[in-house]
Amino acid sequence: MRVSSEEFEALVEEALEQLPEEFKGALDNVAVMVQEEPSDEDLEEVGIDPDDPERDDLLGLYQGTPLTERDSFYSALPDRVLIFRGPILRACETRRQVIREIRETVQHELGHYFGLEEDELPF
Fold first, then answer.
1. In what order do the strands lie in the sheet with 79-84?
2. CA gyration radius for the chain?
3. With a threshold of 0.85, does the pTM exceed it?
């Protein structure tokens, strides 16, 4: 599936705009960024061996301290949600699938920001 970098970033922005207002209003000090591919360090962070040719693709990654683990003295650089363009495009055959996968990946990674564990997330 082919989607230009610019269009992909616009689709990520659209996914953010479609979040319910209560979630959009609660986003603070978090940057959502698009990267072409996860780094080896990104893969290792989630327990994926970067040298395994049969490994699963990583579609997104949350890096930071979930809101549920912060106290009133919390101060840090912005948390990051990384959305990986290459793996999402490889996983999809149609534009509609790309749009859905971006939306689900953004929601999934922001779920970690809000303190949800992997088994608590809908996607």
1. 30-35, 79-84, 60-63
2. 15
3. yes
* 3-class SS of residue 36: coil
Which of 32, 34, 35, 11 is CA-nearest to residue 23? 32
What CATH topology corresponds to 5-120?
Zincin-like (3.30.2010)
Q: Residue 21: phi, psi to the nearest 5?
A: -55, -40
Q: Domain map of the chain by residue range?
A: 5-120
The per-residue pLDDT string of the chain (123 residues; one tens digit each, 9 = 90 and over) reads: 899 999 999 999 999 999 989 888 889 889 999 999 999 999 999 999 999 988 889 999 999 989 888 877 877 788 999 999 999 999 999 999 999 999 999 999 999 999 888 887 766
CB–CB of 60/15 below 8 Å?
no
Q: In DSSP terms, which residues pair with 50 in a beta bridge? A: none
Contact 72, 51 (CB under 8 A): no
- Residues 6 or more apart in contact with residue 78 via CB below 8 angstroms: 29, 30, 31, 64
